[in-house]
Design a protein that fits this description.
The complex is a heterodimer. By secondary structure, chain A is α+β, with helices and mostly antiparallel strands. Chain A is built from ten helices and 19 strands. Chain A has helices at about 15-30, 85-100, 125-130, 130-150, 210-220, 240-245, 255-260, 320-330, 365-370, 420-425; strands spanning about 35-50, 50-70, 75-80, 150-170, 175-190, 195-200, 230-235, 280, 305-310, 310, 355, 370-385, 390-405, 405-410, 415-420, 430, 435, 445, 450-460. In chain A, helix 1 (about 15-30) packs across helix 2 and helix 4 runs parallel beside helix 5. The longest helix of chain A is centred in the N-terminal third of the chain and has 18 residues, at about 130-150. Chain A is globular. Chain B is α+β, with helices and mostly antiparallel strands. Chain B folds into two domains: about 1-225, 2-Layer Sandwich (PmbA/TldD fold), CATH 3.30.2290; about 230-485, no CATH class. Helices cover about 20% and strands about 40% of the residues of chain B. Chain B has helices at about 1-15, 70-90, 120-135, 205-210, 210-225, 240-255, 260, 335-340, 375-380, 430-435; strands spanning about 20-35, 40-55, 60-65, 105-110, 140-160, 165-180, 185-190, 195-200, 230, 235-240, 290-295, 320-325, 325, 350, 360, 365, 385-395, 405-415, 420-425, 425-430, 440, 450-460, 465-470, 475-480. In chain B, strands 1, 2, 3, 4, 5, 6, 7 and 8 form an eight-stranded mixed β-sheet that branches. Classes of the chains: A alpha+beta, B alpha+beta.
């Protein structure tokens, strides 16, 4: 039963308001092209630990960000959250002043022309209206689940409304609004723990209490963990663990990253780098995805096939990167894909709506088909050790199990890994069905569970 | 700003809060970067808003807004109270705050030269000069440089009578040269990785960093690394430069001593801590040379954790954390201090901005320098066989802060008291208390630097905070070296 709350603020930006604010900014801009990015957020989060709500917060804000650009390509950005007439005039003046102090940039393109953007409906009133009392009710049910097992629980239940608008003086108009709801639940037993997380635009599609049961079951099954020697193991990675690793790949798929020779794909585009069973798309319109259907310049996001049957196929490009790539590597036939960051920036672009193609297996089938291996629920504190070999280090966390003879045998102490992603994606021998997944180390994606041979665990910790 | 804060406080207390505090914060941020001879970005951002934190019937509520008219502020206060009512429905033990006197103060942090008074073209000019020197070294494939400046002006009012106004200027800058050579990418950064050095200071910091003077050496090291020997796997003697030791402190001392982690409040995200309450004044954390303090006072230096009062209105203090190797202290909030029977918080509650609640955060967590005069050169000269490592490249530690692994940008083999061959891809790993007990030398005060870590993440919603870490080069025996490349 919902608990309406009249004190909860509404989202303070609709398309008409955004257009009016842009008009005011444009009036104040006399001698340059102007682009205005407006972002509004209402965000609420209830946090619990030790079976108690211990933090409970709400924030609302709006920002108005102005990019001005002169005819010779000098540009700068100024941002404010003062959206009254004086605040707008001041931020436009500041952006203009900063622009004029820059050097001319002959490579800068004029601002984007008007675009056709296919909307993706991701705003759910029920999520927007989810109140502090609604969140507390969910937390109460999670706590009851913990109490049933004599566990302690910690986590969050949160909901958010966002609006994003980009307008420019060439007539481009882009507007998107969406909601998101999220839970993350840790169940703690004496010497073990379990975890589950979910995120979706529609709060009614989430099942946090069922997730609390799964987390509790993991904590129960991993009690009294045994210590195994580090070494190469077959691992079964749950989707959250796959997401956390995969997230470290995708900045390297930006065209500018390759041009700058900071990407592990430098000299490796259009080559077979991974196993035949690895296919990855970027697709903002995928039904399990979230986010705006346009990039930081208002250019619509196109579907990109990043990896096809193990071969690196497409990079993604902001407009300026595509133009440069056409000049320097015409064989790649680069065109803008709608993945650029807001300008000016030094990083170019990156895909952000990753869909990793799944297979026909399942977690249960992978466990049943494994003679000896490790089941990993979640990874933690992943960092890049080597940018070209793409070696990542990190820890397992909150539910790490020994699998023997097709069954979960027991919990094990957490491992540290040092694993090359290039090597790992050649050693995937089973893929489950892809699902919308949330982790803590990367952005949300659509990924499957994976079984990987010879995963490199190098150390064991004390719990 | 005081008037806005007063409206908010009156509205919260008038609506039935048992306790309330309000922060109104106005922040200005300028950031600039260059890359390969061109401007990367130039940005200027301002933000002003207020956050209202209330306790009602022993349960917390917080609401923040950037709509600063009276009606919106009153609505935000009402929302904070509504949230606190919801919190009360799943609350086992009412919150109690450790006592704190009411304080009235106006404080300005150190700033000799207002960074916002420096023309942007002068900022960009400096970065482009550095960039030209970096790219003047054959083999450098990417040069990046940046500057970053913030001014934070905050008014804090509490229902217990505190009225505190603070202004802090934060400045930072640095650069990196990268070398892509066939099948590897090597990088050297100056004066530190991940953006350089950051302090509570004005533009005078940038002059002190001697950015131009070091650019050629740094670029040459990046290129030399691509031809250097791979750091071997071994158990041996390790010497860390002060910046890497600063990050080692951050991860393996600074986070474990946060009492909210210890008490399970961060279990879902940042994790917990091996420093359970029974370890206090019992655990031998390190060797007798290990003396660590949490010190937010200006006397400690202009660190990113230097302040006059924290965001609960508690004055900055110096707390012994490790004394002669013994673990003796945590960092607190008023709430956690009361939970463990401390008479007072030691002033470590800090919020990222006006729209976030304060959390227990490191101030300046620093290892004290050695009492005996010892320079880095003398430290190396007294080492027969080992590896010297400089400037962090990767960092990772488990969620209870036992097992860590760090990679550095540059290593040197040490043989018979001399630096001999350059080593690429150096790394080391260990268990926190085992590692700190292996420390057998630390350089003296003249070689101690207060480093700024600008990117510490914690909390849900996540907050990024700047922390300070004073450190001097130090030596550790019998350390696992080269583990990151173990195959």
């Amino acid at each position: 039963m919902p608990h309406p709350d009249t004190t909860t603020p509404g989202l303070s930006l609709d398309e008409a308001q955004a257009r009016a604010l842009f008009a005011r900014a444009q009036e104040a801009c006399r001698d340059a092209e102007i682009e205005v990015t407006l972002a509004a957020t209402v965000s609420e989060l209830t946090r619990f630990a030790n079976n108690t709500i211990h933090q409970n917060v709400a924030e609302q804000h709006v920002s108005l960000s102005v990019r001005t650009q002169t005819a010779d390509g000098r540009m700068a950005r100024a941002t404010t959250n003062r959206i009254d007439p004086d605040g707008i005039r001041a931020v436009v003046a500041r952006a203009g002043e900063l622009s004029r102090l820059q050097q001319p940039d002959p490579e800068a393109l004029p601002m984007a022309a008007p675009q056709t953007i296919v909307p993706v409906p991701r705003f759910f009133p029920a999520t927007a209206a989810f109140s502090p009392a609604d969140r507390a009710a969910v937390v109460g049910e999670i706590v009851r689940e913990a109490d049933r097992h004599h566990f302690t629980t910690a986590g969050i239940v949160a909901n958010q409304q966002n609006a994003l608008a980009i307008f420019n003086s060439r007539g481009l108009q882009a507007f998107h609004r969406e909601t998101s709801a999220e839970y993350s639940i840790t169940m703690l037993a004496d010497d073990s723990s379990g975890w589950a997380k979910g995120n979706a635009p529609d709060v009614s599609s989430l099942a946090p209490v069922a997730a609390a049961r799964r987390a509790a079951e993991k904590a129960r099954l991993s009690a009294a963990p045994v210590e195994l020697a580090p070494g190469r193991y077959t691992v079964i990675l749950e989707p959250a663990a796959v997401l956390d690793l995969m997230g470290f790949l995708f900045y390297d798929f930006g065209g500018l990253s390759v041009l700058d020779q900071r990407s592990f794909l430098t000299g490796r585009t259009r080559t077979k780098l991974f196993g035949d069973n690895i296919t990855i798309h970027d697709d903002v319109a995928h039904p399990l995805q979230s986010g705006a259907p346009f990039d930081g310049e208002g250019v619509p996001r196109r579907v990109a096939t990043l990896v096809e049957a193990g071969t690196v196929r497409d990079l993604v490009y902001a407009r300026q990167t595509a133009a440069r790539m056409q000049r320097e590597h015409p064989d790649l036939q680069a065109t803008p894909t709608g993945h650029g960051f807001p300008l000016p920036n030094e990083y170019g672009e990156a895909p952000g709506n990753i869909v990793v193609q799944g297979g026909t297996s399942s977690l249960d089938a992978m466990i049943a088909g494994t003679e000896r291996g490790i089941l990993v629920t979640r990874l933690w504190y992943i960092r890049e050790v080597d940018p070209f070999k793409k070696i990542l280090t990190g820890m397992t966390r909150d539910g790490t199990f020994l699998v023997e003879d097709g069954k979960l045998r027991c919990g094990v102490r957490n491992f540290r890994f040092n694993q090359s992603m290039v090597e790992m994606l050649n050693q995937v021998d089973a893929l489950g069905v892809s699902e919308r997944t949330s982790g803590e180390e990367s952005f949300d994606m659509v990924v499957p569970p994976m079984r990987v041979r010879d995963f490199n665990f190098t150390e064991v910790t004390r719990f | 700003m005081r008037e806005l804060a007063g409206w908010a406080l009156d509205a919260a207390m008038g609506s039935g809060a048992g306790y309330a505090d309000v922060r109104v914060l106005s922040e200005r941020h300028r950031s600039l970067s260059t890359k390969n001879g061109k401007v990367g970005h130039v940005g200027d951002e301002e933000s002003v808003g207020l956050g209202i934190r209330v306790l009602r019937d022993g349960a917390w509520g917080f609401a923040a807004t950037d709509r600063l008219d009276r009606e919106s502020i009153q609505r935000t206060a009402a929302h904070a109270l509504s949230i606190a009512r919801a919190s009360r429905t799943v609350c086992r033990t009412p919150v109690v705050l450790a006592p704190e006197a009411a304080h009235q103060a106006v404080w300005h942090g150190p700033c000799d030269v207002d960074p916002f008074s420096i023309p942007v073209d002068e900022n960009v000019g400096l970065l482009l000069e550095v960039d030209a020197v970096l790219r003047g070294v054959a083999g450098v494939t990417l040069a990046e440089a940046d500057l970053d400046f913030r001014r934070q002006h905050q008014v804090f009012l509490s229902s217990q009578g505190s009225d505190i106004e603070q202004t802090r200027h934060l400045s930072g800058g640095g650069y990196a040269a990268l070398c892509f050579a066939g099948d590897e990418i090597q990088k050297r950064s100056y004066p530190n990785s991940f953006g350089g050095q950051f302090q509570l200071a004005g533009y005078e910091l940038i002059a002190r960093l001697q950015l131009l003077a070091n650019a050629r050496r740094v670029a040459e090291e990046a290129v030399a690394l691509s031809r250097a020997l791979q750091c071997p796997q071994q158990v041996g003697t390790l010497i860390l430069d002060s910046s890497q030791l600063g990050l080692q402190i951050h991860e393996s001392i600074g986070h474990p001593i946060e009492l909210d982690r210890v008490l399970g409040m961060e279990a879902n995200f940042a994790g917990t801590s091996f420093l359970t309450l029974d370890q206090l004044r019992r655990l031998r954390y390190g060797s007798e040379l290990v003396n660590v303090v949490a010190d937010g006072r200006l006397e400690h230096g202009p660190g990113l954790g230097t302040l006059a009062f924290d965001d609960e209105g508690v004055p900055a203090q110096c707390t012994d954390i490790i004394r002669g190797g013994e673990f003796v202290g945590y960092i607190h909030s008023r709430e956690t201090a009361a939970m463990v029977g401390e008479s007072r918080s030691n002033g470590c509650m800090r919020a990222e901005s006006w729209n976030r609640i304060p959390l227990i955060r490191m101030t300046n967590i620093s290892i004290l320098p050695g009492k005996q005069e010892l320079s880095p050169e003398e430290l190396i000269a007294s080492t027969d066989d080992g590896v010297y490592m400089e400037t962090n490249r990767s960092w990772s530690i488990d969620d209870k802060r036992f097992n860590f692994q760090f990679g550095c940008e540059l290593g040197w083999e040490i043989k018979h008291g001399k630096r001999t061959r350059m080593l690429k891809n150096p790394s080391y790993s260990g268990i926190t208390t085992e590692f700190w007990n292996l420390m057998d030398a630390i350089c003296s005060r003249a070689h101690w630097t207060l480093w700024g870590t600008p990117n510490c993440g914690k909390g849900q919603p996540q907050q990024t905070m700047g922390t300070g870490h004073g450190a001097a080069p130090a030596r550790f025996r019998n350390v696992r070296i080269g583990t990151a490349y173990q195959s």
